[in-house]
Write a structure and sequence with these properties.
The protein is mainly α. It is built from 22 helices and two strands. α9 packs antiparallel against α11.
Amino acid sequence: MKTNRFVLIAVMIGMAMSVNAQNKDSKYGLDSVACVTNMSIYSEAYKQWEAAKFAPEAISVEMVNAWREVFLNCPRASQLVYTRGEKIMDYFIRTNPAQKDAYIDTLSMLMDTRAQYFPNDPKTHTSQVASIKGRKGLLIYTYNPGRYEEVYNVLKEAVALDPSQLQGAILDAYFKSTIDMVNNGKAEKMTVINVYQELSEVLDDNIKVLAENVMQLEEAKAEALAGEDPEGAAGFDKQIEKNEKSIVNNKVVKSNIDNLFQPFASCEDLIKVFSAKMAETPDDVVLLKRITTILDKKECTDSKLFLDAAVKLNELEPSPESSYSLGIKFFKDKKWSDAATFFDQATKTENNDRRYRAYRNLGMCYENMGSLSKARDIYRRAAQIDPTNGEPYLLIAMLYAGSSKQFSGEVESKAVFWAAADKCMKAKQVDPSCGEKANGLLRAYNANFPSMETIFFNDYSEGQSFYVGGWIGETTTVRAKK
């Protein structure tokens, strides 16, 4: 009996919404007494349901009925009407599979109404429409992935409004719904490529901003410690931890999207799709940027298409992006000096991921030209651009290890491997995802450490500081081969 009454309430909400809610301009609607009374009834009952951990037996028809009256007749009363309404609809969706889509429709209407009456966050006074739409799309997809076309259109709009408001799970759902559209013949394969590039840039920007925030917070913490204010310094820890977790979350989503993109990302597939598009619009600068960016990320730069797009892009719009693409071309041809010139120009880009790659590749050019100190300085710059990426430290480690023959002496020639091992440990510290590669290098370097006897007979001891001279110029720690 209770279930039937709940179903009737949900149906009545859907029928009444289109004719009532939009006419309520005051906070408490046309009948403020009734609004306040119903708010009190549903709020108290909701708190009891919440205290019972939303158990089915603790929900009441009276609560839902009072909430419904507030929702329909005084929609401006409080944002809690909507956040609590989400929880109520979630209960109905999960417990009434036969009416699931009807309740999803009600939830969708609920969130549209929230965006209408609370377009700005009451606390921050900033727009939250993109966030609401994003959450709407995510919830619909979570409850019924079969409604992917609706989800795709909602999330496309949310991303267009303001991607910075959207959590990683929302971006993930957008990409999955895009793939659903293509797999079901409702969008062309190019749509997946476009959305992939769009979301990659959003996630790169998110990671960049978060990493910059962490650096600023750590500087502020250091200043507080220098000023002998340990309590003030401790206050930054939670903020730093929150930002670091967000960086990890964004990287996880980025990795998920990369994995989902793989079936569409073979060089053969990408070249086929992009070649057709470039033939249609050879002067489309946006398309040319997309071609060179994605073919580079997917290591398809040996293709004629990449070269043609890079040259054409540089003709139409000389820029850091086009310079980067030409740098790749000359790098592949082992024309290190020419490649370095273009990669240096490419470091001026505003795209953080591309800027990191430009510095990394520029360092590789100098390494191939034998300028090891210069290469090391540039790898350090790459590490500053993306402080959560361990790759630059591994590149420096390999530079150090590769220069062992430049040093003489039983200990001195081995000390470079201590310095190289230090960089591998740093790489794992900042970027756990490179742990496997770092561990492989560490095993190789450990095999080149001096023996305990060599250390002893040269008047050193394990754990002692050791200065590696020459172009390396770093202090490391004495260690014996294990």
